[in-house]
Amino acid sequence: MAMRPLWSLLLWEALLPITVTGAQVLSKVGGSVLLVAARPPGFQVREAIWRSLWPSEELLATFFRGSLETLYHSRFLGRAQLHSNLSLELGPLESGDSGNFSVLMVDTRGKTWTQTLQLKVYDAVPRPVVQVFIAVGGDAQPPKTCQVFLSCWAPNISEITYSWRRETTMDFGMEPHSLFTDGQVLSVSLGPGDRGVAYSCIVSNPVSWDLATVTPWDSCHHEAAPGKASYKDVLLVAVPVSLLLMLVTLFSAWHWGPCSGKKKKDVRADRVGPETENPLVQDLP
């Protein structure tokens, strides 16, 4: 009995002039979203139908003769709820739930009203990872400064934006030339007065955000922690020791080479001596 009104609603949508409105609704994976069925003032709904238009066309929910129905075989089966005001709630949402939806309503006088909504489902932004890289010092670098590159990265996420914030300082703005790769890399020059200054990388999308904070001065080579040497300190020790071991090896090879040759000659001389003496002993009567 309910199939005939549904077919009539679809036929009215195809043949009669209707009013179409569009809106975008944003939500995140794991959450829920309410698709509001807006209608003009004085529009008394007699029948309504909710459909998914894209990526696949599916029947989601209907309202007929005061009865709400959502048990249709679609990808939202068990995740759709039609409220008394004919708004459709979907959840928990999955990453593949983005798409276009429409609600077709017919009033008691036979007039129709169609509303189209676009649902965009985003992944929740995870906490980013910030790495600190120290530039190699040179003559052009002012003394007692540390040139730092901060690299920020959010794993397994797309459609996000990166921004940086300097903590413990009011009204701080990053210069455009200090940002690289769409804001993922920040270059800053630190001095002794920046020992306790922290920088936060903020990653965000339209529905969520997260941040990670580091204190880059702690990673500067001239501020190595007790018991931990910087890479320059390691080279200053390792290179001289390696050269010393190499010189010792070469000197040993040069010194013991002639000695071993002399020993071999002495051994051969000792072996030849008895052989030359034996004939003399045999000639005696």
UniProtKB/TrEMBL annotation:
Annotated Ig-like domain residues: 128-215
Region Disordered: start-end pairs: 261-285
Name of the molecule in the record: Ig-like domain-containing protein
UniProt GO MF annotations: signaling receptor activity
Signal peptide residue numbers: 1-22
Compartment(s) of residence: Membrane
UniProt entry tagged with the keyword Aminoacyl-tRNA synthetase: no
Entry's Gene Ontology BP terms: leukocyte chemotaxis involved in inflammatory response; regulation of B cell differentiation
Coiled coil (residue ranges): none
Cellular component GO terms, alphabetical: membrane
Transmembrane segments annotated in the record for this chain: 234-256
